[in-house]
Amino acid sequence: DAGVTQSPTHLIKTRGQQVTLRCSPISGHKSVSWYQQVLGQGPQFIFQYYEKEERGRGNFPDRFSARQFPNYSSELNVNALLLGDSALYLCASRSDRGRTTNEKLFFGSGTQLSVL
Amino acid sequence: QKEVEQNSGPLSVPEGAIASLNCTYSDRVSQSFFWYRQYSGKSPELIMSIYSNGDKEDGRFTAQLNKASQYVSLLIRDSQPSDSATYLCAVNSGGSNYKLTFGKGTLLTVNP
To answer: How many Å apart are CA B88 and CA A90, to the nearest integer?
Structure first.
């Protein structure tokens, strides 16, 4: 089975531009989360979506937005890019069949965003 | 602000030794605790989850949880060079909405 897939793998943008990152969860997974990982830090929670509804939002400005589609794939949008937005953006999905399985997050390989 | 703190690294151990990684968390109501391994340039990979006080063993890995002390640890026995990676402690601070709060990670190097 395919894991969590993210695209693109690498992206270079300039300050002020907008970017869209894409994620496809593991087949059958209805929950998608987005995390930002700055070099040398742990991942930081941005959003969680379940069944196309936002279920959680981290401490990020309104420049960050996301949505989930009927096929459970998701997009993360970042407007008015700043240098500090340079990071690895990770998408993760999870199933919802019982507690142990429920709480295992599967991460994609990430999108490395560089803002110049 | 809910926080997860990990012992500062890097941690260096010889091959075959026990590596001990520690983590404390601030949110007393947290119920789920995880250890992720992240190789350089790769995404995090879940290696252990623990929900109840005590020890949980899986192969060479043992996770320990003490909710009264708000402390989680990971022991790696018979460390191998392939265990060299950054280990991230994560706590579910979102309840059913499942929001993971990660520590900064501890870089482990196992020397042959």
So the answer is: 15
